[in-house]
Write a structure and sequence with these properties.
The complex is a heterotrimer of chains A (481), B (302) and C (287). Chain A has 481 residues and is an alpha/beta fold. Helix content of chain A is 38%, strand content 17%. In chain A, the strands form five sheets. Chain A has a seven-stranded mixed beta sheet, with helices on both faces. In chain A, helix 4 packs parallel to helix 5 and helix 9 packs across helix 10. Chain A is globular. With 302 residues, chain B is an alpha/beta fold. Chain B has one domain: TIM Barrel (Alpha-Beta Barrel), CATH 3.20.20. Chain B is built from 13 helices and eight strands. An eight-stranded parallel barrel of chain B has the order 1-2-3-4-5-6-7-8, surrounded by eight helices. The model of chain B has no long low-confidence stretch (mean pLDDT 97). In chain C, helix 1 crosses helix 8. Chain C is α/β, with parallel strands linked by helices. The longest helix of chain C has 20 residues. The chains are: A alpha/beta (481), B alpha/beta (302), C alpha/beta (287). At the A-C interface, helix 2, helix 4 and helix 14 of A face helix 2 and helix 4 of C.
Chain lengths: 481, 302, 287
């Protein structure tokens, strides 16, 4: 290979990781009452990055109490104009510290630095910037002349876009006048803890944002806490259902953003080179750890062979390796647990008769890795066509007509997103109209914006994040009864 | 081939989504090329330069200076590769050939470059003269007026005729993408040129803005890739005009690498039509060699 | 011996630069006690003509910037204004004859007003635009687009708060503006121009012509390359009516005179709505 790209690592020196972190409650860091800590590692090297606190019941209670106190005494009394200014400060601080946060995200999550630098961080800043501007304009949002906040929001977020998921939760909550207790995922706590530092730099009143680290138990205690007014969860459908059961019978407002098994539909008249990019972006971006990933490729049968040949050729230029290398396309799988899940499902794919293919991919010795993989001859009945793999694994099915594409795309308990590739505008709109999915991407995929509402139909969850519709999750919008 | 059939073929090619194409070019432009790979890329880029002067005020003196530069771009470093070709107007081919001998190629623009607005007879005469004077390569322009008016057959026939008039010389067909405007047009013009016998397809004359861009060149690389898949014939690509820095040039090489692969990473299959680019490549080469930034005093003005 | 200060020359703000009036004329501005403050440039018809050229050449790029980008640029202006808070306060205090404390409240309100409008950049389309459920298999949507070049007159009092309240809603949607600030209290407008010149606002998006609206506005009201007028600061009803009549010659959009509005009150969306055009698009939906 004459043109081998030399290693181009982003420097780690921009980040200062403490050896351990406490819980961020009431504006400062404190030791957990139970005294427990757990490690967070770099999934690309298995190196321990830091130890973070495990919040126990007393810690959860303290955090909720701090959020309640801040709500009652400060935040709910503050004008929208002033809340806006704090959130604008946070947005600008994130922009200033973007490189540092991107490197930290890559170290803790395993995603390529190019993605954390060019996708995650700009969106994080944009979410805070957009929502800052709503804080003093809620009367224009269509929720009545003086919409009120809910109170204390309990927010539990996943490991796939740690800081971005934090932004999606915290920004609207604060803009609408609520205070927050947020639990980041146990494998990716570090950027949330850096965010706590940003809250301090912004001068955010203590207790408005509280960050408590921990695992499933901590999350359960948090969402079940009786003094929480609102619960927001992004994560697996299984846990989402458990949370929905847990808040049943209470007055807590709930929004859920769960799994997906999106159909990415390519017609014979698709702009084919861009469609191939869209397929690749749809399932291999972020190692496929994306709830709205285009994990089911529906190819129009008349062009399937040609499209697959182009796709496979394209996959040979994907670079898997050190996430801190600026040329890496595919980073590490976030945890050994997730890797096992991916391996189990891909094994089932082979066992059930689908044909498996991967480009030749040198795999590093340490860390958790899975090469980009394509399964062809997949049908709706295969597990790999029904269950969310949450990894860089694409299942390819075929269809003959637009109606069949719609039927197959909708034939799933999930309903988060869908992609449509065709040059014909009327077909895009006709299909979009029939897709039972909360987000439809036409001739593009995995595009996100704070102004654009995100959320699912069916078992992919309910409620929207972003846009005017997203504000409703954090406002008291019930009629007084 | 009659215009109807040609139209069906060209209009049946897959469409191009502008946003998607430009997005892909932008992502490829984020590749970070350092150390050994950067040194290799700079030397390769130098060896792919068609060092160009196409001005009304060109003289023998100017051409001689350019030829000397082409053969020994860096007077402080004899390990620096020579460029691929010197590119001049047809009436200066003889002078150029006398200066460079066989050591670099002589490329001539022809067919009423840059506008292409002249009779067929004039355009063929222009071509034949340049070939007779010793041009290895002829860079022709397509009739953009005919293309935009849908007269594909005329464009096709002109290319066929010019190719014949070239004799042994290689034919580069300039699409003038800045006047074709849409990416769909560029895809169609690329296929038309390749089917008519082009050895190279070239983005621009450099006299119209925008000239070469990363997205338009990416599209042309995809076209030559698909053409090679379909026919087995490999056509070269030349990006000309507006490429000023080494950073730009390396981005083009990355695009070639990841679209058509290493078989195109040589001067027989990829060229840069440029003038000021060469000095920037030389300064970057000096930087990699010496470990500090260079300056305009350390490269020649010709 | 106290230090002898360096006094400012006050010029026009056109196309991102600070030229003198091509007429070479100036007029005197005094403080509330009739003490001399400065000579201001007295804008002429040709300055107005140049300002329209500058504004028109800025519109294409400014209106095609993303809403996010425009919001960022406007927020940045507020950051720069905040840095010059003391300067604004002293100028408002001198011009309007109010205490530093009152001037401070006035300036703070102006900066906060600017932040308020910055936050609208990526939202007004969601509130003013919509999809329309037409009775047929068509996707139909309405989007607000900037009208283009707006000529505006800022209020005669409320030297900075009134000016900001007129200018910000015009440019947040992608328009470019030629604004005449208060003729008796123009100095804060020049400080605002300096803020604009040192933030990321593209040249020509805001152009400031100090002088006499009664002299210059008729030229702008008739100018065929001005799309809309904002007559907020015109006090004389007869002058306002004449300008409205002139505007009819090219069917300009006109927002009428409102010289004594309550600038402290939270605005509605009407100043944003006034300078956008709504475009509605139809597309069939069919396989």
């Amino acid at each position: 290979m004459p043109f081998d790209y030399a290693p181009a690592p982003e420097s780690r020196s921009i980040v200062d990781i403490e050896s351990n972190y406490g819980l961020f409650i009431g504006g400062s860091f404190s030791e957990p009452t139970s005294g427990g800590f757990f490690k967070t590692i770099n999934p690309a090297t298995e190196e321990v990055l830091s130890e973070v606190a495990e919040a126990g019941q007393a810690d959860v209670d303290a955090a909720v109490a701090a959020a309640r106190r801040a709500y009652d005494k400060t935040w709910s009394k503050m004008s929208g104009k002033d809340r806006a200014k704090y959130i604008f400060r946070i947005a600008r601080l994130i922009q200033e510290r973007s490189r540092e946060l991107a490197v930290l995200e890559t170290l803790d999550n395993g995603k390529p630095i190019r993605e954390s630098r060019d996708v995650d961080l700009p969106l994080v800043a944009a979410h805070f910037f957009y929502h800052a501007g709503w804080a003093d304009k809620l009367e224009f949002a269509g929720y009545g002349p003086d919409p009120k906040s809910l109170g204390v929001a309990a927010q539990v977020i996943p490991w796939n876009f740690p800081l971005l998921m934090l932004a999606w939760k915290v920004a609207p909550a604060l803009a609408c006048g609520n205070t927050v207790v947020l639990k980041p995922a146990e494998t990716t706590p570090l950027t949330a803890l850096a965010f706590a530092d940003i809250c301090q730099q912004a001068g955010l009143p203590p207790g408005v944002v509280n960050i408590i680290t921990g695992a499933g138990e901590t999350g359960r205690m948090l969402v079940e806490h009786p003094d929480v007014d609102k619960v927001a969860f992004t994560g697996s459908t299984e846990v989402g259902k458990a949370i929905q059961r847990a808040v049943a019978g209470t007055k807590k407002k709930l929004t859920l953003e769960l799994g997906g098994k999106a159909a990415n539909i390519v017609f014979d008249d698709a702009p084919i080179d861009q469609a191939i990019e869209g397929i690749v972006n749809g399932i291999y971006f972020n190692q496929g750890h994306v709830c709205c990933a285009g994990s089911r490729l529906l190819l129009q049968e008349s062009v399937a062979d040609e499209a697959l040949a182009s796709l496979k050729r394209r996959l040979t230029t994907l670079r898997l390796g050190d996430p801190l290398d600026k040329n890496t396309d595919i980073g590490a799988i976030n945890s050994s647990m997730q890797l096992s899940k991916i391996e189990e499902l891909t094994a089932s794919g082979e066992a059930e008769g689908a044909e498996r293919w991967s480009p030749t991919c040198p795999i590093p010795d340490k860390g958790f890795w899975f090469p980009p993989t394509v399964f062809t001859n997949v049908t709706q009945a295969h597990r790999i066509a029904r269950e969310e793999i949450f990894g860089p694994v694409l299942s390819v099915l075929t269809f003959r007509t637009p109606e069949e594409a719609v039927a197959k795309a909708n034939n799933t308990p999930f309903g988060l997103s869908a992609g449509i590739w065709t040059e014909k505008g009327s077909r895009i709109l006709w299909m979009a109209n029939q897709m039972r999915a909360g987000i439809v991407w036409a001739n593009t995929f995995n595009r996100f914006d704070p102004t654009s509402p995100f959320g699912g139909f069916k078992e992919s969850g309910f409620g929207r994040e972003g846009g005017v519709q997203g504000l409703g999750a954090y406002l008291n919008v019930e009629d007084p009864s | 081939m009659d215009n109807g059939t040609l139209t069906s073929r060209l209009h049946g090619l897959p469409g191009v989504d502008q946003v998607g194409l430009e997005g892909r070019a932008a992502t490829l432009a984020t590749r970070s090329i350092k150390k050994d790979s950067k040194i290799w890329a700079i030397d390769t880029a130098i060896s792919m330069v068609d060092l160009t002067t196409l001005e009304g005020m060109d003289t023998d003196g100017k051409v001689r200076a350019l030829c000397a530069k082409a053969l020994h771009p860096d007077p402080t470093d004899s390990t620096c590769p020579a460029v691929a070709a010197v590119c001049v107007y047809g009436d200066l081919v003889a002078t150029t050939r006398a200066c460079v001998g066989d050591r670099v190629h002589v490329a001539a623009v022809a067919t009423a470059f840059p506008s292409g607005r002249a009779s067929m007879d004039v355009k063929l005469m222009d071509t034949k003269q340049a070939a007779a004077d010793g041009a290895d390569e002829i860079d022709m322009v397509i009739d953009r007026g005919a293309f935009l008016a849908g007269n594909y057959a005329k464009v096709f026939e002109e290319i066929v005729a010019v190719k014949e008039a070239c004799g042994d010389a290689h034919l580069k067909v300039i699409l003038e993408t800045g006047e074709l405007k849409t990416y769909d047009n560029v895809r169609r013009a690329s296929w038309l040129a390749m089917q008519a016998g082009a050895d190279f397809i070239k983005t621009s004359t450099g006299k119209v803005s925008p000239a070469a861009t990363l997205p338009v060149t990416l599209l042309m690389l995809e076209a030559v890739r698909d053409f090679a898949d379909q026919t087995g014939t490999r056509i070269g690509v030349k990006a000309a005009g507006g490429i000023k820095t080494s950073k730009d040039a390396i981005r083009y090489l990355v695009m070639v690498n990841e679209t058509v692969g290493e078989d195109w990473l040589n001067p027989d299959m990829f060229r840069f039509g440029a003038s000021s680019l060469l000095n920037d490549l030389l300064m970057q080469r000096q930087r990699m060699r010496d470990g500090h930034y260079s300056g305009p005093d350390y490269v020649t003005i010709d | 011996m106290s230090r002898v200060d360096v006094r400012k020359t006050h010029k026009l703000f056109i196309g991102g630069a600070f030229p003198r009036s091509e007429s070479g004329r100036t007029y005197e501005v005094t403080d509330s006690k009739e003490q001399f403050l400065a000579n201001m440039a007295l804008a002429s018809r040709k300055d107005a003509r140049d300002a329209v050229l500058a504004a028109r050449s800025a519109v294409a790029k400014w209106s095609s910037a993303t809403a996010y980008n425009r919001g960022q640029v406007l927020y940045r202006i507020a950051e720069v204004m905040e840095g010059r808070r003391e300067q604004f306060i002293s100028e408002v205090s001198d011009s309007e004859g109010v205490s530093s404390r009152k001037a401070g409240a006035h300036v703070d309100a102006a900066i906060d007003r600017w932040v308020w409008y910055a936050g609208w950049a990526d939202k007004y389309a969601q509130v003013i635009g919509n999809t329309n459920p037409v009775a047929g298999p068509f996707f139909n949507f309405s989007v607000p687009e900037p009208t283009g070049v707006v000529a505006a007159v800022a209020p005669q009092d409320a030297s900075i708060l009134g000016l900001v309240s007129v200018v910000a809603p015009i440019i947040v949607t992608g328009n470019a503006v030629i604004v005449m600030p208060s003729s008796s209290r123009p100095i804060p407008a020049i400080t605002l121009a300096e803020c604009l010149a040192t933030s990321d606002v593209p040249a020509g998006v805001v152009n400031i012509l100090t002088g006499a609206p009664a002299e210059v506005m008729p030229w702008l009201a008739e100018h065929a390359d001005v799309n809309a007028l904002d007559l907020t600061g015109i006090v004389d009803e007869g002058v306002a009516a004449d300008l409205e009549r002139s505007a009819a010659g090219t069917v300009k959009r006109v927002r009428g005179a409102a010289p004594h509005a309550d600038w402290q009150a939270t605005p509605s969306l009407s100043r944003i709505r006034a300078f956008v055009e709504v475009k509605t698009v139809w597309h069939p939906m069919g396989a």
